[in-house]
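Example record for the data management plan.
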Amino acid sequence: MSLLFQTSEVNPLITALGFTSGRLAAANLDVHAEDEMLLHYLNLHANDRDQALVLYFDSGRRIWETLATILRWRFGEMPPGFQLLDFASGYGRVTRWAVLDIPPERFWVSDVYAGGVRFQEAAFGVHGIVSHADPEQLACAETFDAIVVSSLFTHLPETTFRSWLRRLWGLLRPGGVLVFSVHDRDLLLPGRELPPAGFLFDAESESGSLSTEQYGTMWVDEAFVRRKVAEAAPGSSVHRVPRGMLRFQDLYVVVPEAGADFSGLALRVEPEGFVEHCSLIRGRLRLTGWVADRARRDAPRELRLTMGSETVLVHRDFVPRPEVGILFPYEQVTPYGWDLAAELPPGTEAAGPVVALDVVDAAGGVSRLYEEPLHAALLRSARLDGYALEVRARKLRQEGDALRAHIAGMEASWFWKLRKAWFRVKRSLGLTRDT
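Corresponding structural encoding:
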């Protein structure tokens, strides 16, 4: 089996970002060579393997964290005999994180890619079902308490959108939950609009192997989704979470009973960001990074730095960081940079306090952007700095190799050989000592 990444590989960036420590250290990070999601990230980021791997692993982890929140809301503790189906699971971007919480013997995956299903069975120990382009041809004898579908209905034309909803709903047990994601109308590029029917389908997608007529790109509005759910699952309750998946796709949560109360389902789209640097010099802490609000698409009001239980700094001076926008290729989002410096509180213990950043968004909402013990933040930053130096050294070696190859090419050329012969003649006549 050919892999694009192996769990045993020591990757400085993956290590620095914590994918191989704590509870995540138990995850199987093997990535199949035909995994289209990783290949998609590679294509988006000019074949930068490290960046593609980070986005791949991080997106899968974050999707599962969202789905796990919904499952806890619905079930609390896992009921006896619980079974979950991850439909259109690809090659396991989400599965590798899900099996840290759901025993593999209670976990089913299904996809039209037979290789992806077999890979997940072997790598993660889950049950596999090879799917079919035609919903009526899906052979499945099981039923499930939860069915999760990330990034399938984002690609289906209207007819199969409806058919797959009906087919999957038929596999759901009483008291279960169906969760799926869609592209909402607000993700359309400027100048494009939904037709009155509430959906727009383009015959193109990131897949390099599936028919674009069956698997393209679909945008919908809420009325369209609710109409299709009502047709496929009459009497059910539907809850929409705008940008609930990866702060990009809308999530729909469907349960069988009418009039369900979704008020306890706490899923809020919050700003996201990254701490790029953390250093401590003579008791003074410095943090730099960026923040982006993809829901409100505006600069935050402020950033609050807390050490221990004390808020030591409130920051309101944000600078646009357009170069970070490469992380959001389908959206008009402006990330904003920040640079903070503050003294450590008196009496700080040797390991340092817990460092936290809270962001106040443009609407006044407050959310936790970052939280880590100081010693861990410093170690993480040192590892990132080491990775950056390694990348720079690699680039210098490549430039040196290219220069040496250029010189070797010149020396092998007829002009260079003629030049050297001419200087030999001049030296033999005593006209020069140059070489």
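Summary line stored alongside the record: The chain has a mean pLDDT of 91.
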